[in-house]
Design a protein that fits this description.
With about 260 residues, the chain is α/β, with parallel strands linked by helices. About 45% of the residues lie in helices and about 15% in strands. The strands form two sheets. Strands 3-5-4-6-7-8-9 form a seven-stranded mixed sheet, with helices on both faces. A two-stranded antiparallel ribbon has the order 1-2.
Length: about 260
């Protein structure tokens, strides 16, 4: 069992795979999911990397609190985890909200990063009003209010029809999510706008965009590539959670980039 991690009074659940002697890769999950969303990547990459996964606070088996927090708190949780594991530098791959966390780390803690992968994300995701409205909705009505429509936001219709068990499993986990923790992350997203700061990122960066992503579009990916010096852009034939919809293609992009 991993040594317990408590940050800012909140217990955070994490998992490691692979040998500590390997280069470290940290995987940051999206809103409404947990570290299991990275199972395919962890299995494929653990022979070459020390893979570290964290349930974002308010998600999965990690705790939450009533105090509001921002993207900076989620980024500092990653720094705390690296310190806890005595890891000086790591590659970070984040998807959607996790990608915003990755951007924040690239801006504020580049000395801790070897590389950055920003998947299905943007420097500003959605609008503050929409995130505040979603937070209020789940605080009032619970997670069922957002779980019912999640599959259509996350995956293409073809994937939903073909991989019914995978989709149902992820929606069930969303429905069981802590509503207070989910709402707190929505409120963090409402405040998160890194558009003016993204050009400060200097670590090697790969941007991955889903060709059918209605949430963070290919155009959002192009914008990030243009703003981050030396960044490259790859597209995946998927919607918003591209690492689950196209695990082999996503993993191959990740492995090729990190092996450079």
């Amino acid at each position: 069992m991993p040594e317990p991690l408590i940050v800012d009074g909140t217990p955070l659940h994490y998992r490691t795979d692979g040998a500590r002697a390997h280069p470290c890769l940290v995987l940051c999950n999206s809103l409404g999911t947990d570290l299991s969303m990275w199972d395919a990547q962890a299995e494929a990459l653990a022979s070459s990397f020390f893979v570290v996964r964290l349930d974002t606070r308010g998600h999965g088996q990690s705790g939450t609190s009533d105090a509001p927090f921002g993207i900076d708190r989620l980024g500092l949780d990653i720094i705390a985890l690296l310190d806890h594991l005595r890891i000086e530098r790591a590659a970070v791959c984040g998807i959607s909200m996790g990608g915003l966390v990755g951007q924040w780390l690239g801006i504020h803690h580049p000395q801790r990063l070897t590389a950055l992968v920003l998947a299905n994300t943007a420097a500003r995701i959605g609008s503050g009003e929409a995130w505040q409205a979603r937070a209020a909705l789940v605080r009032r009505d619970g997670m069922g209010a957002v779980a019912d429509g999640a599959a259509a936001r996350w995956f293409t219709p073809a994937f939903i029809e073909r991989e019914t068990a995978t989709v149902a499993g992820m929606v069930d986990k969303l429905r069981a999510q802590n509503a207070i923790g989910y709402a707190a992350c929505c409120e963090a997203l409402a405040q998160a706008d890194l558009r003016s700061e993204v050009p400060a990122i200097t670590v090697p960066t790969l941007v991955i965009a889903g060709e059918h992503d209605p949430v963070t579009t290919v155009e959002d990916g192009r914008w990030l590539r243009q703003q981050i010096a030396g960044a490259s852009l790859a597209t995946v034939a998927a919607s918003h959670i591209s690492n689950v919809e196209q695990p082999q293609q996503f993993t191959a992009l990740l492995q090729a980039f990190l092996s450079q």
